[in-house]
Amino acid sequence: MPRDTPYLQVADKLRARIRAGEWAVGDKLPSRARFAEEYGVGQSVAQRAMERLIIEGILEGRAGSGTYVRRARERRRMVRSRHREQRGKSPFASDMAELDHEADWECTSTARVP
């Protein structure tokens, strides 16, 4: 999507203002009507810009209360070791092969149903 799309331009400007510290974490943002007037766009454009920042995790909308600056999400990296995977085998099977074990997914149970 081109960056000249009005709502993306407004989102970029709001993001920059938040990063510059104009609003701190937990601060309530002005209304979308105010942003629409400030940026010379319609309220729907301002709303889409704010929704974009909500999706990105920068803002948080609270029903009946307004839009607030959100604490940065904690990023957790999911690591998957591709070098351990062998063609046609799962990571578990590859790990077991390294230990000279054969991977087996079958399970037997001695539980009895009364």
From TrEMBL:
InterPro entries: Bact_HTH_transcr_reg (IPR050679), Tscrpt_reg_HTH_GntR (IPR000524), WH-like_DNA-bd_sf (IPR036388), WH_DNA-bd_sf (IPR036390). Pfam families: GntR. GO terms for biological process: negative regulation of DNA-templated transcription. Residues 4-72 form the HTH gntR-type domain. The keyword DNA-binding applies. Keywords: DNA-binding, Transcription, Transcription regulation. The keyword Transferase does not apply. Residues 77-114 are annotated as: Disordered. GO terms for molecular function: DNA binding; DNA-binding transcription factor activity. Residues 77-86 have a biased composition (Basic residues). This is Winged helix-turn-helix transcriptional regulator.
